[in-house]
Each structure stands twice: as structure tokens, then as C-alpha cells.
Design goal:
163 residues; mainly alpha
Length: 163
């Protein structure tokens, strides 16, 4: 009796979906970086020429804290995570690169279907963990960004209308 379910294809498609989720998280962060940078830049430019009192200046500086928090989450999101990856994997680039070419070729040519499926399953699991972590940090970065907006707007108003 033949098994019509192709496990290798299913796991390869699963791994591709996990990698796409990782890529999507990275794209979302690339949209946030220039926006937060511009926000900080506007505050810095206006603050330099503003003649505010101590309290408004303190508010303006404190209003940038959520933007800095957003930057921290952005950094956590884009820093590569390789924990959980097998160093002897024939699927993960780090495992492949850790071997010399002859060793990789010999192991690849001797690879059994069961070992390939196990390696794919491990890589799917590791990639899903990476995607989850990136998504969580990206979500927190956006929450901090949205929290920053009203405080930033008031800071810009104070800097544009001193006194």
C-alpha cells in the first residue's frame, strides 16, 4: 500500500512558510526604522534652536523614550537567532557551512529519507520559534511607536510654539 502523503514536500512547504513569516517580520521593521529616525531627527533639530524652560525641555526629552523603546524592540527583532539550529544539519545553512565540502557531499549522498525528514522537521520547529520571537518583538516595537506618537506630537508643538 503506497502512502500518498509526501512528508518531505509537506515539511519543505512548512519550512518555506516559516521562512516567509521571518521575512515578513523583517519587512515590517524596515518600515518603522526610518519613521522613528525621522521623529528623533525632528525633535533634535527643533530642540537645538528652541528656547524652552526646564519643564518643557524635560517633557520633550522624556517624550522620546517610547521611540527609544521601539528602537530596542526593532534591534531585538532583526538580530539573527540561531539558537535551536542543529550544527550538523544538512538543511540549515549554518550546519552546511560548518562542514567542509567533502564532508557535506559525503553526508548528503548518504542521507536517508528518514534522516532528511527529521532534519526538515527540526528546521521547521526552529524557524517557527524564530518567526514567533521576531513577530513578538516587532509587535512590541509597533506598540511603542504608536504610544510615542501623541507624546511626540505634543513635543513638536511645544518646540514649534515656545512660550
Amino acid at each position: 500500500m503506497s502512502d500518498t502523503f509526501d512528508r518531505a514536500r509537506a515539511l519543505e512547504e512548512n519550512l518555506a512558510r516559516q521562512i516567509e513569516a521571518i521575512r515578513a517580520s523583517d519587512v515590517k521593521i524596515t518600515l518603522l526604522v526610518p519613521t522613528c529616525t525621522a521623529m528623533i531627527g525632528v525633535v533634535a533639530a527643533l530642540l537645538r534652536s528652541a528656547d524652552l524652560g526646564a519643564l518643557p525641555t524635560a517633557y520633550v526629552l522624556l517624550s522620546t523614550i517610547p521611540i527609544v523603546v521601539a528602537y530596542a524592540f526593532m534591534a531585538l527583532s532583526v538580530i539573527p537567532r540561531l539558537r535551536g539550529q542543529r550544527s550538523d544539519s544538512l538543511v540549515f545553512f549554518g550546519g552546511i557551512a560548518a562542514q567542509d565540502a567533502a564532508e557535506f557531499r559525503a553526508r548528503a549522498l548518504a542521507l536517508t529519507r528518514e534522516a532528511y525528514l527529521a532534519d526538515l522537521a527540526d528546521q521547521c520547529h526552529a524557524a517557527a520559534g524564530i518567526a514567533r520571537t521576531k513577530y513578538r518583538h516587532g509587535r512590541h516595537a509597533y506598540l511603542a511607536f504608536f504610544l510615542a506618537l501623541p507624546f511626540w506630537a505634543l513635543a513638536i508643538y511645544l518646540l514649534s510654539h515656545p512660550g
